[in-house]
Structure formats: structure tokens, C-alpha cells
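ugh ok so i messed up the first submission bc i forgot one of the chains. this is the corrected input, ALL of the components this time, i swear. 299 residues overall. if the numbers dont match what u have on ur side tell me asap before i send this to the collaborators (the ones from the other lab, u know who)
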Amino acid sequence: MQKTKELSLPVASFEEVFATKSGAIFQSDSEKCWYIDFAGKLARFDYRNLLKLKKAVYNINIEEKLLSSDKSADVEIIFICACDHSYVLSLLELIKLKEILQGTFVMLELNHIIHDRLFRIIA
Amino acid sequence: MKDIMRVKCSISEDVETLINQQIKKEAHSSAIYLGMASWCARNGYEGAAAYFFKQADEERDHQMKFFKYVLDMGGNAVTPEISNIKQEYNSFREVFEEALEQEISVTQSIKNIAARCQKENDFLTLDFLNWFFKEQREEEIKARRAVELFDVIGEEGTGRWQIDKAVGAISYNSEA
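and heres the new structure output, hopefully the right one now
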């Protein structure tokens, strides 16, 4: 009897880097990228784009926008050059995204320290 | 979980930002020297003009060294925007006094990067910066010597003509 070849599907292994009630960021080691689950979509960011997103978000002066009495809508468009995704966020969403990003970068730094201590630096 | 951040880039974001600021500073410096060369040439100081053209080239070389270092380390080197370059000076002496100020400011700024590197144990960048410290020592000594010439030779009579000739001959050779 002919044996049916088992289909080997690529297993996408995500690891949660940081999550809040409003969203989360996962890392995929095999794809060397991050997935951001926020504002109703799961978006893939590689190393360069994640840094660009961080820069874009961090550069927005949230305090100034909160104090502004302009009649314009409090909507921020976060567009990243050469990236497939963009975000159109209200101020509250922006604060939430910033929180997730801040947490993520702290966790990535922590991961770096752990790697150093466990595998790289000979005690 | 893999340490992707470290795999992609060998320098921290802070150091990258500081070096990018330095790239801008060196580019600015190069442009200032070019402005000085222009002023000297316009006012008949050919020796000094040649000296400043050479300085402008050197600053550009420094800029490129920093630029390539950031890229080699996996960082993002940013092409700087340069504006507000002084074109006019009040006197021949003022040009050299400002050139010395410029060199001091560059040295201080590189020291600041080194201090940051020391804080985060970035010995790779510290080692890279060592070349610049040696270079800055030479630059500052040469710039200080040029200002000294104004006192030693004096600006009276044919003094400025002599200073103009002497500037090109300033050299620094250190064994250390």
C-alpha cells in the first residue's frame, strides 16, 4: 500500500514579547521578524521597520497633542517608508501602541542581557 | 527567543544616534572650513586658503569614517543636512580663532561619544574612536599654533603676509 506522504507544514512559532490589554507583539525566530497585533490587525515588521515604527511613534509629542485645543481631529497617521503597513490611530490608541512598543523594547533588551549571561559570557 | 536585535546590529541605538550627530558635526565642520578657505582666498591669503581647503578635506574624511562605521556595524547612517555656514569674517586672526574653537568643539563631542561607550561597555566603538582622539590632538595643536603665530610674528607691516606663509608649514609629528 502506498504510504501517503505526510504534509509538513511550516510551523510558525511565535513567542510573545510583550502584551497589554490592547495588543501584543510576538517574535518569530524562524522569520526573524515581529508580528504586531494591534488595532484589529496582525502586521509583520522586520528589524528595520520595527525600528522605524518605534522612531515614528516616539517622535510624536503626545503631551502637546493632549493640550492642543485645535479643532482638527486627534488622528495620527503613522506611515513607514518601504513598509506594507500603516496605522491611523486616535490619540488614545497611540498611547496604547506606545506602551506596547516601550514594553517590547525593554523585553528585547532583557532578552539580550539573558543571552549574554547564559550563552555568551563565560562566568 | 533569539536575540535578533543584537544579531542585526553591533551598536546600541544611543551610540548610533550620537555617531549620526557626529557625522553632521564633521560635515558642518568641513563646510565651515570651506567658507574660511573662500574668505582667505578672497582676501589675498593664499597660504591660509590652501590650509583650510586641506582641513575641509580632512573633516570630510572623518565624516565618511563615521558614516561607514555605522553602516559596518549594521546601523543606519543618516546623510546630514548642512546650513548656516559663515561666509564673512572680520579679520584674518578671527578666522583662525574660530578654526581652533571648531576643533575643540569636535574633540569634546567625540569625548562625549566615548563616555557613552564606556558606560555601556562598547569597547568596539571605543577602539574605533581612538584613531579620532589621536587625530584631534594633532588638529588642536595645529590650530593653536596657527593662532600663536599672530602673537609671535605680529600683524604689523608684512606680518600678515608672513603668517600666511607660515601657516602652511605648521606640522605636528608625535612619537607618542
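quick check: The mean pLDDT of chain B is 95. that seems consistent at least. Chain B touches chain A through eleven residues (CB under 8 Å).
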